Structure to design on (250 residues):
């Protein structure tokens, strides 16, 4: 889970349109929010990921649901209120169900930075400093679902850690002179760049992968070697900064 910047309301959703759609929802109970301009803007806003669990929404069985943060049955006047709409997966949508977020708040990722309320421990979210908001969010969304979330997070983070080990081996060999061709140098630098992009906020489960990579002892050694070899360039620095912002320290 990462903070998401809300995009501007689609121009098609004018105040008049909102009134018309809200009235239709109240009278006919139709899915008035299911328009391409709402769905496409929400999809773009979260880079094609569920705003809660960060799974990719274009994978099989994970198509996007328009989530009403304040539930549409309890708060029908907000059924197409732009600030009330979020993109999420069927799993999170089902778990949240009819939960009343006004009576028992959970994190709204467009308003609250999850890093203030959550940490990651062994691919699982935990509440930070006993945060009630963090705990409620984990419970309501069932964010530590072993099969559907913890396992895929582990698989992706583990693959990143394996790549990290391979790049570190090559960097050690470069440093001790065993293998220090220009080709090898490019493999090391570009390998690390693509690895860090896996932990970029646009990537799936980015909070988990970023935390796993940035706190890995191999990463610390690899970065030290690259700095000592003068391989640590401006682009690596920029990508690393994005990864650090995405991570939730344990
Ligand atoms: Zn989800």
């Amino acid at each position: 889970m990462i903070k998401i910047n809300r995009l501007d309301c689609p121009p098609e959703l004018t105040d008049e349109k909102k009134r018309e759609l809200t009235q239709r929802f109240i009278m006919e109970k139709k899915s008035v929010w299911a328009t391409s301009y709402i769905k496409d803007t929400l999809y773009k806003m979260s880079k094609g990921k569920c705003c809660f669990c960060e799974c990719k929404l274009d994978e099989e069985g994970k198509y996007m649901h328009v989530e009403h943060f304040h539930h549409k049955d309890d708060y029908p006047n907000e059924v197409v209120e732009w600030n009330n709409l979020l993109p999420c997966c069927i799993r999170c949508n089902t778990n949240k169900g009819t939960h009343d977020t006004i009576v028992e708040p959970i994190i709204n990722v467009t308003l609250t930075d999850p890093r203030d309320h959550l940490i990651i421990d062994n691919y699982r979210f935990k509440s930070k400093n006993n945060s009630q908001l963090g705990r409620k969010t984990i419970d309501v969304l069932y964010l530590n679902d072993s099969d559907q979330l913890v396992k895929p997070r582990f698989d992706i983070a583990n693959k990143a850690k394996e790549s990290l080990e391979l790049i570190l081996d090559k960097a050690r060999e470069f440093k001790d002179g065993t293998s220090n061709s220009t080709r090898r140098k490019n493999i090391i630098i570009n390998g690390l760049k693509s690895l860090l992009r896996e932990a970029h906020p646009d990537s799936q489960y980015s909070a988990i992968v970023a935390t796993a990579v940035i706190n890995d002892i191999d990463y610390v050694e690899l970065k030290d070697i690259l700095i000592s070899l003068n391989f640590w360039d401006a682009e690596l620095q920029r990508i690393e900064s994005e990864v650090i912002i995405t991570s939730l320290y344990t």
Notes: The first helix runs from residue 15 to 28.
